[in-house]
Amino acid sequence: MEEMKCYMPKTLKEALEIKSRVDVIPMAGGSDLMVSHKRTIGLTPVFEKPVMIIRNLPELKRIYLNEKGECCIGAGCTSSEIASNTLCPWHVRQAASRMGAIGLRNSATIAGNIANASPKGDTPGPLYLLDARVKLQSVNGVREVLVSDFIVKFRTIDLRADELITEIIVPYSEDDFDYIFWHKVGTRKANAISKITVSQAIRFEEDGKTVADYRVSATATGSKTNRSRDVERLLIGKEISSDVIEAVIAGFDQVISPRAMPEFRREATRRMIRRFLSQAALHPADKVIDTYDEYHVTGQPIPRG
Amino acid sequence: MEANISFRLNGEMVSISTDPLRRLLDVLREDLGCIGTKEGCSEGECGACSILLNGHMVTSCIIPVGAVDGQDVMTIEGVSKTEGGKIIVQAFADGGAVQCGFCIPGMVIAAYYLLSNNPNPTEEEIRLGISGNICRCTGYDLVVESIKLAAQRGGDVWKR
């Protein structure tokens, strides 16, 4: 008998059963795997292991709030489905809406973006920021791991051979914060691979001055997405002042380790943190704090020269 | 390895026996005669191979044919026979949108997908709608104008 090199399960149960006995590569959208394994025009991609196509599994397509009010996003939900669903937290929607081209966003899935474990992935930044977890399912049971632990390092994830990512659970949303920030620096408005993306969120105590919660994460600034609770604690419990802003900036600068164009990436990251915190300090201000550039104010490109 | 794969193509059921990991683009062009679907970048970024899968625009170069088993596929051959498709094709011709023509099947699919979901797009929305379709003749302005024309001419066709 010819060796199976592609499985096409119709249900999650069937998929988990296959995963329990065969070492397969799960493929949903194909936007990373089909490209990384492509050959030349007209030739079929070749994979090192059998592939299991899970694009249409209905169990992986749901978006809902669980009993704790956490947003649960099915592993097979595409970027377009996430971007257009207001149950999904704002930061996650922003990242999903600016990933690749439209045709790609209609294929690419959130679980694929995580499992690819690229430091330039768009969704991990917001998912780290909001303490999101991946739900990993196998025939033997279910476990949940923080996305920030699941992505171990560049191109490496904490997934057992019998497991499949089935859901992403996001415990926080924009409602938990007073001010939110997400900005992707790309070379174009569409189709861009991230040069840097910074996500931030802050909440004040009832006095409106003391910082109760502050978070910052950055992608494409090292071998994996960066977030540091130690740096965030420099601000928590304090009032925003220029000294503490500079301390946070200096602290985060130690956390990131961009390789290509490091000074550009460091400076852009510093500016985005400074912008967000200095605007939030004006409390009350607009909830969504953006970078101040003409492009965002007018929708027109910035004149050059 | 071969598998039997059946799906709806431009309204008709088709059934083929093939390697499920072949790219949908190759199966459409080589086995099913849908050569309006073009191969540009092979990475899902240029939009030349755009098709509609269950009504959503996708790039067929990154989709293994096994993933469309039981699904609904529309290519430019099908779209250009619909009422809206005919309006877009005529508007592209009248508006001078076509230079070399290679990106145009993908552009028409993108315009169809846009107008089906947004019958009266602003210029900004049109530009976003075709942002995943790259034209190396760089004639985007006339494509944008032609899509505006198709929106006007289509009227109620797009609101159904």
Task: Give your account of this protein's structure.
The complex is a heterodimer of chains A (305) and B (160). By secondary structure, chain A is α+β, with helices and mostly antiparallel strands. Chain A has 12 helices and 14 strands. Chain A has a 5-stranded antiparallel sheet with strand order 4-5-10-6-7. In chain A, strands 11-12-13-14 form a 4-stranded antiparallel sheet, sandwiched between helices. Chain A has a 3-stranded parallel sheet with strand order 1-3-2, with no helix packed on it. In chain A, helix 10 (242-255) packs antiparallel against helix 11. Residues 294-305 of chain A have low confidence and may be disordered. Chain B has 160 residues and is an alpha+beta fold. Chain B folds into 2 domains: 3-78, Ubiquitin-like (UB roll) (Roll); 80-159, Orthogonal Bundle (DNA polymerase, domain 1). Helices cover 38% and strands 16% of the residues of chain B. Chain B is built from 6 helices and 5 strands, in the order ββαβββααααα. In chain B, strands 2-1-5-3-4 form a 5-stranded mixed sheet. In chain B, helix 3 packs across helix 4. At the A-B interface, helix 5 of A face strand 4 and helix 5 of B.
